């Protein structure tokens, strides 16, 4: 069974346990301190999670894409929402009530494994970003984020690509910086021949040299 077929079968199964809901860009799926009363599975679109300080400062936490569950961590720890989730694009989700979510997992061990891996990865990413916020300069955080976004090109591990072309405002939000800092850093790396820009993409010409700028 191919990967696409596995994904389609999984989506069909999850659909049978919940209800379909659509969101428009900027719609909130949930807000901080809301009760963790539902879990959602993303069929299409993109959702970002943010937290707010007492002074109202917004910090980007995570991104959720098709195939991701969202809202389950707060439910597992029996907590209210610890972040706000907002649609970045038009979004289609399956909304699951807690009892149906638990039944779905208990009857499908592969989904249990998926949730466990996803939770571990997200906790690791949040820890890494926290360390970077304390230890790296703003340009260093830009370089670290570019490395995370890159995908291999062919068989050369040193040459990688970021496609589509990243939106600098979005990159800045992820690392708690500014669009200007991201733009200046990318321009400098291009002048050093570490990066090159093409239509719709950024090419990382030498990953080792990019890594030297993560400081």
What does this structure look like?
This protein has a four-stranded antiparallel beta sheet. Strands 2-7-4-5 form a four-stranded antiparallel beta sheet, with no helix packed on it. A four-stranded antiparallel beta sheet has the order 9-10-12-11. It is an alpha+beta fold and 215 residues long. The mean pLDDT is 92. The protein has eight helices and twelve strands. The radius of gyration is 19 Å and the shape is globular.
List the helices and strands and how they pair.
Layout: H1 3-15, E1 19-23, E2 28-30, E3 39-44, E4 47-52, E5 58-64, E6 69-70, H2 72-76, E7 84-87, E8 91-96, H3 98-107, H4 109-135, H5 138-149, E9 151-153, E10 156-162, H6 168-174, H7 179-191, E11 195-198, E12 201-204, H8 207-212
Antiparallel strand pairs: 1-8, 2-7, 3-6, 3-8, 4-5, 4-7, 9-10, 10-12, 11-12
Helix pairs in contact: 3-4, 5-7, 6-7
What is shown here, in short?
The protein is of the alpha+beta class and 215 residues long. It has eight helices and twelve strands. The model has no long low-confidence stretch (mean pLDDT 92).
């Amino acid at each position: 069974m191919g990967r696409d077929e596995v994904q389609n079968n999984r989506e069909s199964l999850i659909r049978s346990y919940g209800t379909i809901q659509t969101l428009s860009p900027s719609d909130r799926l949930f807000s901080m301190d809301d009760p963790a009363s539902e879990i959602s599975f993303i069929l299409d679109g993109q959702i970002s999670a943010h937290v707010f300080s007492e002074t109202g400062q917004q910090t980007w936490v995570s991104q959720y894409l098709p195939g991701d569950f969202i809202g389950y961590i707060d439910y597992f720890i029996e907590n209210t929402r610890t972040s706000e989730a907002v649609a970045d694009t038009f979004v289609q989700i399956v909304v699951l009530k807690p009892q149906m979510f638990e039944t779905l997992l208990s009857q499908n061990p592969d989904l249990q494994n998926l949730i466990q891996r996803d939770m571990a990865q997200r906790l690791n990413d949040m820890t890494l970003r926290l360390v970077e916020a304390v230890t790296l300069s703003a340009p260093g955080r830009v370089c670290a984020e570019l490395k995370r976004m890159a995908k291999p090109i062919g068989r050369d591990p040193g040459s990688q690509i970021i496609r589509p072309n990243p939106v600098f405002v979005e990159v800045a939000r992820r690392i708690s910086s500014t669009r200007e800092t991201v733009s200046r850093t990318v321009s400098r790396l291009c002048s050093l021949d570490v990066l090159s820009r093409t239509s719709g993409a950024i090419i990382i010409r030498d990953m080792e040299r990019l890594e030297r700028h993560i400081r």
